[in-house]
Amino acid sequence: MTRAAGSGWRIWKKYRKITKEGYIRLISSTVNKQVKFVNALVKKARTRREEDLFVAEGLRMCQEIPRDRIRTLYVSESFRKTPEYKALAEGVRQVEVVKDEVFRALSDTRTPQGILALVRQYHYTLDQVAKTSGDGGPPAQLMILETLQDPGNLGTILRAGEGAGVTGILMDSCTVDIYSPKVIRSTMGSVLRVPFVCVEDLGSAMDELKKKGIRILAAHLEGGRAYDQEDYRQDVAFLVGNEGNGLSEAALTRADARIHIPMAGRVESLNAAVAASVLMFEAARQRRMEFKDRRG
Fold it and tell me: 11 with 142: CB under 8 angstroms?
């Protein structure tokens, strides 16, 4: 094709690549508007809120996302040659191909796999998250998180929570953004399946849980009873606080009881995600044993 081809030359400059699928637009510069937009979503919680989108990266994560929730799928030139590409792109309305070196500017990881999606955020209400046995389903098993700051902790709690059968996550607005790329990676896909809600007034939300008959147990170093001495087979919520400062007095006063995890040696406390996991899986164990007893 030559410059004499007029508009055809401009199409060639814009798309650069011809395949059996026709013209494929190729993002070849780090100053491209889409690259800047993705970077803003990666770095700024405010942009994620305003655009109602989050960034999910990596093959496994992108395979788990429902196709109708993907707004845009970005793939590197190298990834587009892989066997997985066709299945992942099927059903996605907008697919963008990116030069390998430019994709590295899109990515938030050191060794990008060459696939990244812009995903529409999930929105749950407190009622959806806090369904109880009175609603005809299983007893509630909730996690209430106050001012957690470590993305890895939040992501791990969601992932472990899914494994332990948690029915929902309640967070205050001071907790790290659940749509931070680091949180998303840590969840390993659980963020797509575990209901969660973030509230401005955690105290009022906890009051609503109590009205529903959900018993709130606060994890505290000076808790009255050991965690494995409580009964978690009914509607229950575990309250876990900030990694450094623990729970606020306002949150503690709303708890029905305080529990602690006994420590051996010179260890004073556990990482927030580890402590939450211990509590969630104890609840899962008790419920599993009850189910087994019922079946005889």
Answer: no
pLDDT one-digit tens code per residue, 13-64:
444 444 444 446 799 999 999 999 999 999 999 999 999 999 999 999 999 9
Letter string b/e over residues 162-191, b meaning 16 or more CB atoms within 10 A of that residue's CB: bebebbbbbbbeebbbbbbbebbbbbbbbb
Task: Please give the Cα distance from 102 to 81 (Å, whole number).
Answer: 17
Three-class SS state of 69:
helix
Nearest residue to 57 (alpha-carbon basis) of 151, 179, 157, 193 = 179
Q: Which residues, at least 6 apart from 88, have a Cβ–Cβ distance to it below 8 Å?
A: 62, 63, 73, 75, 115
Q: Write down the pTM of the prediction.
A: 0.88
User: Of 97, 272, 261, which is closest to residue 176 (Cα–Cα)?
Assistant: 272
User: Residues with Cβ < 8 Å from 249, sequence gap 6 or more?
Assistant: none
280 by DSSP, 3-state: which?
helix
**How many C-beta atoms surround the C-beta of residue 1 within 10 A?**
10
